TrEMBL record:
InterPro entries: DUF2891. This is DUF2891 domain-containing protein.
Length: 363
């Protein structure tokens, strides 16, 4: 038993053998600046704000900046987290850009030891065990991954400050996963497949063998035997994640290219019959000022990176790569065109999804 657990930990820590490379256009500084401006405009913008938390008394009726000294902007906690991730990601990739000093100043303002201590206190309060689980927690780990991987004195300082919250979040995953009996197959924040992917990336990057093993085990238990994915039932009217594609994007992190190709044949058997991009139509937002309807803009962006990830997990000569990448391109075009900032309902978060896509963070 001990040997099996040790082997599972080692297996989970090792990324599966790579499939094919996916050639993608690189982000340029002008595009990066546009996305950076959207995040800079919201990470310290307190209102409007959506607070969703357990209140234990009148004293919990506080303004966002007091409840969350770091992640109070961008309308809600998780959007603030991935808005900060966006800033770190772009500063790391464009350290000499004109926007770099403003990003550094914003991160210095946010990621202080004192402010993080306030976030930790919030998470430790009674009744908040499930707060932001799993979506916001997974993005917090993604922020930590970005800082951990970046060999820069500023990143090391910010990551050291973030560590107490990172430890709580990782512990929340470790405590939750053994008790989770079924996957959560939604197109919104509660979905497990997308969160598992981000958390597994963090566990592998930082060497957390225990969490990696739990995620590897649960991914196999929940998804390995899935067949005939009901992609035709997607999307729901306010999805920003695809349950089917997110699952496939997770499993290419768990299986090697040969095993993944076989799994995908069973999971999406009609994919081999597809051609071009029309087999997966892009989603259309009818009212970008409606925050829930605007989720579909995010769906186009997340579908694009998931389709690219699925293609990257397959062997180089696999015929399914062409329709996957064709659909990815159409979703990429539609998704990026929606990131305008015209309406705060999308402007406070879509840039993060765009940066995750165009910087190929997922693979």
């Amino acid at each position: 038993m001990i040997y099996c657990l040790f082997w599972l930990s080692l297996t989970a820590l090792q990324p599966p053998s790579k499939g094919a490379a996916v050639p993608m256009p690189k982000i340029d500084e002008a595009q990066a600046a546009r996305f950076a401006e959207l995040a800079l405009a919201c990470v310290h913008r307190e209102y409007p704000n959506k607070i969703a938390h357990v209140m234990n008394g009148d004293g919990d009726a506080l303004p966002p900046r007091q409840l969350h000294p770091v992640f109070y902007g961008c309308f809600d906690w998780h959007s603030s987290v991935h808005g900060h991730w966006l800033l770190v990601r772009l500063l790391r990739q464009f350290p000499e850009a004109a926007f770099a000093p403003r990003i550094e100043a914003a991160l210095d303002r946010s990621l202080t030891a004192e402010a993080i201590a306030g976030e930790v206190a919030y998470f430790k309060a009674k009744g908040r065990t499930a707060y932001e689980r799993p979506y916001g927690l997974a993005w917090l780990l993604q922020l930590s991954t970005e800082l951990f991987e970046w060999n820069d004195p500023r990143a090391k300082r910010w990551h050291a400050h973030l560590r107490p919250l990172e430890e709580i979040v990782a512990h929340r995953f470790r405590s939750w996963l053994p008790k989770l009996s079924h996957p959560i197959r939604t197109g919104e924040h509660s979905q497990t497949a997308f969160a598992f992917g981000l958390a597994l990336d963090w566990a592998r990057a930082t060497g957390d063998s225990r969490l990696a093993a739990l995620l590897y085990e649960k991914s196999q238990a929940f998804y390995l035997e899935d067949r005939d994915a009901p992609l035709a039932y997607e999307p729901s009217g306010q999805d920003f994640l695809s349950p089917v594609l997110a699952e496939a994007d997770l499993m290419r992190r768990v299986l090697d290219a040969k095993a993944y190709a076989g799994w995908l044949t069973r999971f999406m058997p009609k994919l081999a019959q597809r051609s071009g991009a029309d087999w997966l139509p892009v989603a259309v937002v009818t009212d970008a000022s409606d925050g829930k309807l605007a989720h579909l803009d995010g769906l186009n962006l997340s579908r694009a990176w998931m389709l690219e990830g699925i293609a990257a997990g397959l062997p180089p000569k696999d015929s399914r790569r062409e329709p996957l990448l064709a659909a990815a391109r159409s979703h990429r075009t539609a998704g990026l065109a929606s990131v305008t900032g015209e309406h705060y309902e999308g402007g406070h978060w879509l840039a993060s999804f765009a940066v995750y896509l165009v910087t190929t963070r997922g693979y």
